[in-house]
Amino acid sequence: MADDDRILIARIGAPHGVKGAVRVKAFTGDPAAIGEYGPLVSREGRVFVIRHLRLDKTVAIVSFAGIDDRDGAQALNGTELYIRRSALPASDDANEFYHIDLIGLVAVTPDGERLGTVVAVHDFGAGEMLEIERMGGKTQLLPFTRAVVPQIDLAGGRLVIVAPPEVEARDDTETPQGGEP
Q1: Going by CATH, does the domain composed of 3-86 fall within 2.40.30.60?
Q2: Is the pLDDT of residue 20 over 90?
Q3: Hey, CA dihedral for 38, 42, 47, 49, is it positive or negative?
Q4: DSSP β-ladder status, 114-123 and 128-134
Q5: Is the full-model pTM beyond 0.85?
Q6: Is 36 helix (H, G, I), strand (E, B) or coil?
């Protein structure tokens, strides 16, 4: 599977029990959805077929075909699982998109001034954040809200950023008073 065709959908974590089950952190809205895409593939090309999946709060407990003991499960810890981009369902909603679609978009001000490029979308638990790589290599986190990002143009490869006042007032090139950057 080519790098530009694959989407990271989950990461295998620690073993769960002694019969080969593992904890899996899904990067989908519904953790159980990872079972709906068919076989999952590691970066190295290893195919993983889900034999059984159940939810434990926000983590999936998964048994994969061919993994039958704790040692086999432990060897998988940290393995990233991918699907083909084409396996993702299309949306009829123009305001709905996948995080992967945002990465690489140019961030501009409402006046068209280039701010940088979206390099990641994070969710640390208090809402999604866009990580923008500014000119010169510094990065900046901005809330991914309609107020801060009022316009997303996927076809045009850009999004408009209206920085909150506390971000606008800060000059990223200077060291804050009384401390280090």
Answers
A1: yes
A2: yes
A3: negative
A4: antiparallel
A5: no
A6: helix
